[in-house]
């Protein structure tokens, strides 16, 4: 508490008192202090730190001002927000004396004046914003309060360094409502996160099924292509073998007695076919030329003659 009387100056949480010293003519002013001297009851000068000289009985040390930064507790006070919510707030104000003359003669009780100014400024700034923005804009509130106090305290020779809102007390109903809102927001975020997780899981499963189907279809396509290529290769080989057989058959036909060989082959197949059909108990087949038995016998005899010729040729070769 700053008293501009002659006896003491109290500041910060720890009480420090500065008694006005007696004028002995030779004075030593401590660092970061300013002594206000009156001569014959009128302000005369401000003594700086170090060695100073004054006239005894004529000059008097009227005030001792500390030039250090001091902290003042701002007590709890009620403030109404823009949405009509009553809050209880307190804070800490940091200030320092920049003009010892104004601090001594500009205000009667500097601490009381600064405290009242800080409280009124806080109420005014709180009334401009909603409850939801009080906690968000605490730094802005502190800056606005500092600017207002600095402007108002300039004639007092005091500079406000900073202001900090320390505690904000809410009504119990508002606190419960805010707690319920916070819990609802948390549940909402949890539900959103859970739904997003399920969505991601479904997407991952769908992607896996899609990838599996793509790979399966690619495998079937590769299998089909390979199978088709194999069948094409087989058909090509069969066609080549048949073409080779036809060429050999054509060569055989155009050779000596080739026609007889053809007739013999036809006769063999003819006889084999009739042999297979003869095994059936209820099937009867007649030759296409049943009335020309002599021609059929002649063909068979001719084939037998060619077979005997081949056997004789084979025995001669051996």
TrEMBL record:
Localization of this protein: Mitochondrion
Pfam families: Band_7, Band_7_C
Name under which the protein is recorded: PHB domain-containing protein
Domain Band: residue ranges: 24-182
Keyword Mitochondrion belongs to the record: yes
Family under the similarity heading: Belongs to the band 7/mec-2 family.
Xref: InterPro entries: Band7/mec-2_domain, Band_7, Band_7/SPFH_dom_sf, STML2-like_C, Stomatin_HflK_fam
Gene3D superfamilies linked: Band 7 domain
A GO BP annotation: mitochondrion organization
Keywords: Mitochondrion
An example Gene Ontology CC term for this record: mitochondrion
Keyword Mitochondrion set for record: yes
């Amino acid at each position: 508490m700053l008293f501009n009387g002659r006896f003491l100056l109290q500041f910060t949480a720890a009480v420090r008192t500065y008694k006005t010293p007696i004028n002995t003519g030779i004075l030593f002013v401590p660092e970061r202090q300013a002594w206000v001297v009156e001569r014959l009851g009128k302000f005369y000068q401000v003594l700086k730190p170090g060695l100073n000289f004054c006239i005894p009985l004529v000059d008097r040390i009227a005030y001792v001002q500390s030039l250090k930064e001091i902290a003042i507790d701002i007590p709890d006070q009620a403030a109404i927000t823009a949405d009509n919510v009553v809050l209880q707030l307190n804070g800490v104000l940091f200030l320092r004396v920049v003009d010892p003359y104004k601090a001594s003669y500009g205000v009667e009780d500097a601490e009381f004046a600064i405290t009242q100014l800080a409280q009124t400024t806080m109420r005014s700034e709180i009334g401009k914003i909603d409850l939801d923005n009080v906690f968000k804009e605490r730094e802005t509130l502190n800056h606005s309060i500092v600017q207002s106090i600095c402007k108002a305290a300039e004639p007092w020779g005091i500079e406000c360094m900073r202001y900090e809102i320390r505690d904000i007390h809410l009504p119990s109903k508002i606190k419960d409502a805010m707690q319920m809102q916070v819990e609802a927001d948390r549940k909402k975020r949890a539900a959103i996160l859970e739904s997003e997780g399920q969505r991601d899981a479904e997407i991952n499963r769908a992607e896996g099924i899609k990838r599996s189907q793509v790979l399966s279809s690619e495998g079937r396509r590769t299998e089909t292509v390979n199978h088709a290529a194999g069948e094409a290769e087989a058909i090509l080989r069969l066609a080549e073998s048949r073409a080779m057989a036809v060429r050999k058959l054509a060569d055989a036909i155009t050779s000596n007695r080739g026609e007889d060989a053809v007739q013999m082959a036809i006769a063999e197949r003819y006889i084999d076919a009739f042999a297979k059909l003869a095994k059936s108990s209820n099937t009867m087949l007649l030759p296409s030329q049943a009335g020309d038995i002599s021609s059929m016998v002649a063909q068979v005899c001719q084939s037998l003659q060619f077979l005997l010729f081949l056997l004789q040729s084979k025995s001669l070769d051996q």
